[in-house]
């Protein structure tokens, strides 16, 4: 006897998929677990099924229930007629199967749904109305509202052709041939299929501006703290704490920010304590910069007001207070974006690395001994950077890094521009010097040529620049520009005029597996002055370095045949009024196999740093042998002007949140040494802890913390940070704590209130966040486990996951008169989510129940009775729990 009778053919593949999904949800919720866990789950499932069938449910009825609960809802299909005689149940009249009669049917009403356009999910949940079809009263269709249409990013020509129904509230899908809309209550999603011909340009991980999210209002406070305690064998012990960060507020598209930095130093000897600072000018706490900004998507630009450092591809940077309007390359698709600076060096011991520009701390971190490379500086940084490496043995390295700028090329027909106006200021927020205006542009003439230039006018100081960029196709890209400056110095009764000439080149040689990331040459005449030099000389009576020649090259090469990779970073700076600065860092790395030891890493680095007549040359050798699943034994050797040092160590990655390294050996002076370094990626902060000991020299312990707090109307959370004041995504698991959520990095766990903040997100990039299903607590189930967001710079994004926490149990539901709800009735919680379906004689497997919670049973299209979950319900027992369902007012039958 057929269970279904239907004159049309039906595609049951969605049902089969849903059956498989339901079985996994009930008996094997955790995906990808170990074989041992799977075996245990099978045993539990077998026991559950035994109890289930022993309670009076026949296997055939259970199968039918599973089929019915798995029917996927979407667009409406012709109705099915159910032959209830095929069901092995006692009361066939007490069955409610209306909602299963039409595959894909959704009852008219309002639903909160995620909206997917060609599998790309829109930024937020939408309220979607399902209305009755005019020509089919038994069917329904989704109302695609104007708010949804705005985020689809249709081309303007098609926007003008759209038709509307229901008094302009719903899109008429017939006006876009090929477009379709389908609802799915299983995932609470509205699926829109839109032919690509109607859409603006997009990429798999990049959304057009119409889908960018400015986030929600909120407050933030980010910090980067480093503390160190040094106890020398002879002399005073020293304690110092340095910190920097950003405080801010978001309101709509505006970002209000204040950068801060602090330093505390304490020296203690046998006579008592002595307190002091690095210099008399430094304070313990300093608000170094106040500013606000917002993005202007239509202009592909960023508007900034307040204190800032000139961001220019042509003119050198200086500090000012004013306003700027700058096209932001980060708003372009990823394949059209440019270059960010990096800092490389070699730390002799565990060390603190500080990167500054004109006294402002840009970056500070703890690094382990050996080569380091800092690549996460903001791409808005330009000009000369001052780098200070404070070793735990008390020595200090200082050098400068000139940030490279790739050739200023622009796509054909596109214009990039930067407009800035204001007045120069010092680091005490005092204005000094004349008001100024700066403008620069780059125009893509055609596929091969770009014209660029700029003007900086500031009263008695003026600079004019003009340049040309050329795409040499297979030979790379090249640009050349000339800048002429004129500066009048009344005190010196002279006017200086000079020129500066720059040549830049970039090329990737795919056939040779090599890349010239940047190569540049700049020559400046003796009387050439940039704005910073002019301000120092005229208003501060300070002499500045007068650069003459600058050579810079960043080069990478892969020798595939022998498995060798090479990296070179070189700069050579000469001056008119001071000695030459030289800096290079070259590294070679290779993986080799020796006997049964595979993937042995060999790295050789050589460096030279000639800065302020101080020479520092050295070589560094690292040999790493994998040991076990996550460990590595290593040998490190270093040679420089002070001698040589050797150490052996062991590194182990405990998991994706914890790693440590220990080592021992001899120092440059031949003394015994030992050190340790530990990193923890915590939910509330990134922690670095280190300690070192040198026989007869000193003992040092250090601690680094990077974290922040974000406060919004939805809640607050402590969290790690990448860059202070940067973009972040707050996730909400509806009050369920300890839920692991993952972005691009290691997972974070929601706090007591069900909130967490992800910071490994990129601006203007489709970021995905997902619940880590493999590590969910046993009593937690994620109904909606994936979210995505494309956030503007500095935004506090907000996304909510549908998560249920509670007991799972087999229940027997009875009405006050002793009868039971009809077969197929739904059990729904307070959030209107289905947590189970009534089967034969009132049996139901329910999930996500909490003690004392009230749930309702729905049939005939509405709630009929209510259950109060008892306090003594337990998921540990496989016995069936009896639940009483009390009729709602006026529903008694």
UniProtKB/TrEMBL annotation:
Record-annotated PapC N-terminal domain positions:
81-227
Alphabetized GO MF terms:
fimbrial usher porin activity
Q: Which PROSITE patterns match?
A: FIMBRIAL_USHER
Q: Which residues cross the membrane?
A: 52-75
Q: Mind listing the UniProt keywords for this protein, alphabetically?
A: Cell outer membrane, Fimbrium biogenesis, Membrane, Signal, Transmembrane, Transmembrane beta strand, Transmembrane helix, Transport
Task: Report membrane topology.
Answer: Multi-pass membrane protein
- Where does the source fall among the domains of life? Bacteria
Q: Where is each PapC-like C-terminal domain found?
A: 813-868
Among the GO biological process terms of this entry, one is: pilus assembly
Subcellular localization is given as: Cell outer membrane
Q: Which GO terms describe its cellular component?
A: cell outer membrane
Entry annotated with the keyword Transmembrane helix: yes
* Similarity comment: family membership: Belongs to the fimbrial export usher family.
- Show the NCBIfam families listed in the entry: PRK15284.1 (NF011812)
Record's protein name? Outer membrane usher protein, MrxC
- Tell me what organism the protein belongs to: Xenorhabdus poinarii G6
């Amino acid at each position: 006897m057929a269970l279904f009778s239907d004159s049309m053919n039906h595609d049951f593949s969605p049902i089969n998929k849903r059956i498989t999904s339901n079985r996994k949800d009930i008996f094997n919720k955790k995906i990808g677990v170990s074989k041992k866990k799977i075996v245990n789950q099978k045993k539990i499932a077998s026991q559950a099924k035994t109890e289930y069938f022993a309670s009076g449910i026949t296997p055939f009825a259970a199968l039918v229930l599973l089929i019915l609960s798995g029917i996927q809802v979407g667009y409406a299909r012709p109705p099915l007629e159910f032959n209830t005689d095929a069901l092995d149940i006692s009361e066939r009249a007490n069955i409610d199967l209306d909602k299963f009669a039409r595959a894909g049917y959704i009852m008219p009403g309002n639903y909160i749904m995620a909206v997917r356009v060609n599998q790309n999910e829109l930024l937020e949940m939408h309220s979607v109305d399902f209305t009755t079809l005019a020509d089919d009263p038994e069917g329904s269709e989704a109302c695609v509202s104007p708010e949804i249409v705005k985020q689809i990013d249709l081309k303007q020509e098609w926007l003008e052709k759209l038709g509307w129904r229901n008094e302009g509230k719903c899109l008429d899908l017939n006006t876009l041939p090929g477009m379709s809309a389908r609802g799915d209550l299983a995932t609470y999603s509205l699926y829109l299929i839109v032919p690509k011909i109607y859409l603006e340009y997009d990429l798999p991980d990049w959304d057009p501006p119409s889908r960018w999210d400015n986030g929600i209002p909120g407050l933030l406070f980010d910090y980067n703290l480093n503390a160190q305690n040094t106890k020398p064998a002879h002399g005073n012990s020293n304690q110092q704490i340095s910190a920097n960060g950003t405080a801010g507020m978001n309101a709509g598209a505006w970002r209000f920010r204040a950068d801060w930095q602090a330093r505390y130093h304490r020296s203690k000897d046998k006579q008592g304590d002595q307190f002091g600072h690095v210099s008399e000018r430094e304070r313990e706490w300093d608000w170094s910069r106040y500013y606000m900004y917002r993005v202007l998507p239509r202009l592909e630009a960023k508007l900034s007001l307040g204190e800032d450092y000139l961001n220019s591809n042509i003119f050198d940077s200086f500090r000012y207070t004013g306003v700027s309007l700058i096209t932001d390359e980060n708003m372009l698709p990823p394949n059209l974006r440019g270059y960010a600076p990096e800092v490389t060096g070699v730390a002799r011991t565990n060390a603190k690395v500080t990167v500054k520009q004109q006294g402002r701390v840009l970056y500070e971190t703890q690094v382990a001994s050996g080569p380091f490379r800092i690549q996460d500086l903001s791409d808005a940084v330009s000009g000369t950077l001052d780098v200070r490496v404070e070793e735990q043995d008390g020595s200090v390295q200082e050098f400068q890094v000139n940030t490279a700028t790739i050739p200023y090329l622009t796509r054909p027909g596109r214009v990039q521009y930067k407009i800035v106006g204001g007045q120069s200021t010092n680091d005490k927020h005092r204005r000094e010097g004349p008001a100024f205006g700066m403008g620069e542009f780059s125009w893509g003439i055609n596929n091969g040529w770009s014209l660029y230039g700029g003007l900086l006018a500031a009263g008695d100081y003026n600079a004019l620049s003009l340049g040309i960029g050329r795409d040499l196709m297979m030979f790379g890209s090249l640009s050349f520009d000339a800048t002429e400056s004129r500066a009048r110095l009344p005190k010196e009764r002279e006017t200086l005029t000079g020129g500066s000439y720059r040549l830049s080149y970039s090329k990737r040689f795919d056939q040779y597996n090599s890349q010239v990331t940047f190569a540049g040459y700049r020559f400046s005449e003796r009387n050439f002055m940039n704005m910073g030099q002019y301000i120092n000389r005229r208003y501060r009576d300070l002499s500045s370095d007068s650069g003459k020649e600058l050579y810079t090259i960043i080069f990478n090469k892969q020798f595939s045949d022998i498995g060798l990779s090479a990296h070179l970073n070189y700069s050579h700076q000469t001056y008119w009024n001071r000695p030459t600065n030289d800096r290079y860092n070259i590294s070679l790395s290779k993986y080799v196999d020796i006997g049964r030891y595979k993937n042995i890493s060999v790295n050789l680095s050589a460096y030279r740093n000639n800065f302020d007549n101080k020479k520092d040359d050295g070589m560094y050798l690292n040999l790493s042998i994998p040991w076990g699943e996550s460990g590595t034994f290593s040998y490190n050797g270093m040679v420089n002007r002070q001698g040589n040092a050797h150490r052996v160590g062991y590194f182990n990655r405990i998991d994706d949140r914890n790693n440590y390294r220990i080592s021992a050996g001899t120092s440059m002076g031949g003394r015994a040494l030992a050190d340790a370094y530990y990193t923890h990626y915590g939910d509330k902060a990134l922690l670095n802890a280190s300690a070192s000991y040198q026989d007869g020299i000193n003992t040092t312990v250090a601690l680094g913390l990077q974290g922040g707090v974000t406060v919004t109307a939805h809640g607050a959370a402590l969290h790690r940070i990448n860059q202070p004041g940067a973009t972040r995504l707050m996730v909400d698991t509806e009050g369920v704590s300890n839920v692991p959520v993952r972005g691009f990095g290691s997972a974070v766990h929601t706090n007591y209130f069900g909130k967490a903040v992800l910071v490994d997100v990129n601006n203007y990039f489709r970021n995905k966040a997902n619940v880590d299903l493999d590590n969910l607590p046993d009593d937690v189930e994620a109904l909606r486990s994936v979210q995505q967001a494309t956030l503007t710079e500095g935004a506090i994004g907000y996304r909510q996951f549908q998560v249920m926490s509670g007991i799972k149990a087999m229940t027997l539901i009875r009405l006050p008169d002793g009868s039971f709800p009809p077969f197929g009735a739904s059990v729904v919680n307070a959030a209107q989510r289905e947590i189970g379906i009534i089967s034969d004689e009132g049996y139901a497997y329910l999930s996500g129940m909490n003690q004392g919670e009230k749930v309702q049973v729905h049939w005939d299209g509405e709630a009929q009775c209510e259950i109060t979950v008892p306090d003594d319900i337990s998921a540990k027992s496989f016995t069936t729990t009896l639940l009483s369902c009390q009729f709602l007012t006026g529903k008694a039958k």
